[in-house]
Amino acid sequence: MTGVLSLAQELAEVTRLVAGDDVSSALGRFVARATDTVPGCAHASITVRTHRGDFETVGEHPVNLLVPGPVTEALIHHEPRRLDDAAADERWPTFSTQLLLAGWCGCLVLPIPTSERGQAVFTLFSREPDQFDALSYDFVMLLALNAGVVFDNVSLYHHSTGLVEQLRTALTTRATIGQAQGLLMQRFGFDADTAFETLTRASQNSNRKLRDVAAAMVTAHENRALQATLQEFQLSTPDPV
């Protein structure tokens, strides 16, 4: 029971989402926890496909992970790869040679289940051969699943907060434009459509965004300097009918 509780605590810790985290910092904490938790694991890393189509790695890694080897195959095929003993395995000679020269013997690579297939893999490195047995493999599988939760939750968090911020900006902009329309309607007797067309024309003539023109007018009105701003935008008199 103690082992189960310990595992539950570890998973709860690594999947905790802290406001303000980006994917790199959240996964960095995950990698550190995994290194401390998995038996036989001396280092761990997570390799993530970026929006540019290349890859970035979070955490320590003793070799170039993107040479032909278990990491690239796990990314391409979205399947686990295990290298128990680099001195005896002949599947990835370049990768194995780099691993041995760096003083390492094995690694375990698992794809991270995310909302988009093939976006990330979780790699664990061992100093000694044959460190990742069936129990370690199952445990790391659980960690990889939770890494996917971290990855998707952080991405979703930032996507959601970005959408909220965009919505707030849009609502603020709409309110500001409405205020500027009201100022023109009051000043010149325009109806709402004519006031909006006038704002649009002022935006085009001044090569400034519509929301900036509207904000300038509202600010000028609050500072009792509306007349000067109207003149700046050539709106000192109503357009002739």
Task: Describe the structure in your own words.
With 241 residues, the chain is an alpha+beta fold. Helices cover 56% and strands 12% of the residues. It contains eight helices and five strands. The chain has helices spanning 2-14, 23-37, 70-77, 93-101, 134-188, 192-206, 210-222, 226-232, and strands at residues 43-49, 55-59, 81-83, 106-111, 120-126. A five-stranded antiparallel beta sheet has the order 2-1-5-4-3, sandwiched between helices. α2 packs antiparallel against α5 (134-188) and α6 (192-206) packs across α7. The longest helix is centred in the C-terminal third of the chain and has 55 residues, at 134-188. The chain is rod-shaped, with a radius of gyration of 29 Å. It starts with a helix and ends in a 9-residue tail after the last helix. Mean pLDDT is 75; it is low at 1-8, 17-21 and 156-168.
Features:
241 residues, alpha+beta, 5-stranded antiparallel β-sheet, 5 strands, disordered N terminus
Number of helices: 8
Tell me the helix content.
55-70%
Instruction: Report strand %.
Output: 5-15%
Decide which structural class fits the backbone.
alpha+beta
Major beta sheet, specifics?
Answer: 5 strands, antiparallel
Strand order of the largest sheet: 2-1-5-4-3
Beta strands, count: 5
Low-confidence stretches: 1-8, 17-21, 156-168
Radius of gyration: 29 Å
Q: Helix and strand string, N-terminal first?
A: HHEEHEHEEHHHH
Shape: rod-shaped
Beginning-to-end CA distance, first to last residue: 85 Å
Averaged pLDDT:
75
